[in-house]
Amino acid sequence: MKIATFNINGVGARLPRLLEWLEEARPDVACLQELKAPTERFPAAEIEALGYQAVWEGQKSWNGVAILARGEAPVVRHRRLPGDPEDLQSRYIEAEVGGLVIGCLYLPNGNPAPGPKFDYKLAWFERLAVHARSLLEDGGPVVLAGDFNVMPTDLDVYAPERWRDDALFRPEVREAYARLVAQGWTDALRSLHPGERIYTFWDYFRNAFGRDAGLRIDHLLLSPELAPRLVAAGVDRAARAKEKPSDHAPTWIEIAPP
Questions:
Q1: Which residues are the active-site residues?
Q2: Residue 205 burial by CB count (10 A; 0-12/13-18/19+): exposed, middle or buried?
């Protein structure tokens, strides 16, 4: 079973790239972030034409998340991250697919830091940690996939010294990620590639992709029941090299049958 996460950076603007990637990579499940489109503008028909069914939560101009499944309909469990009913930003959707629970998330960027946006990021991270622990307590195979907007270690950023004060790399954020993983989650990509510089995001500016000046901010975390079934993980860098791409590349894992 192939599961991928892809911050599409505008599903309208990048729809040709998304459809192209779905045809080429053929993931069984794809988690999308930053749809940047209201719910009614999600391109369900075009995606269904490739054999995928989807659940999604849009938001005009910002955010937006979706879970696509090939050959079956995801069964929604949550359309918002639990813990704050007043938070209406579309940053989390959770569904059951193929015997797995899939949580697709778009964690806040948090810049500028310090400030209200950074405070919101840390609060959102804490809510995620509470919900993630409840998923582990429930048991069963779970994947938390998405754009976490955090580089966990120096190995995950091309020039660590330039990012020390950025909201994606401040110690508070890296510590929050470390505490989350310490609940019992496995960082899939890093577990299979422990010493490699692997990036999932390259800025559009200053020829970042050409220089390989990237960041690893897209992650797939696996519950203890699922981690032993991990057989492969990687990043589809070729998608980032195409015309008018997202600034992220799809990140994927392969899971063996139970």
A1: 106, 147, 248
A2: exposed
Question: Would the annotation count 7 as a binding residue?
Answer: yes
**Average pLDDT of adjacent 10-residue blocks, the chain of 258 residues:** 98 98 98 98 98 98 97 97 97 98 98 98 98 98 98 98 97 98 98 98 97 98 98 98 97 97
Annotated binding residue 165: no
- b/e 102-122 (16+ beta carbons within 10 angstroms → b): bbbbbbbbbeebeeeebeebb
Per the annotation, does 247 bind a ligand?
A: yes
| Domains of the chain and any CATH numbers | 2-255 (3.60.10.10)
Tell me the whole-structure pTM to 2 decimals: 0.98
User: Are 185 and 225 spatial neighbours (Cβ–Cβ below 8 Å)?
Assistant: no
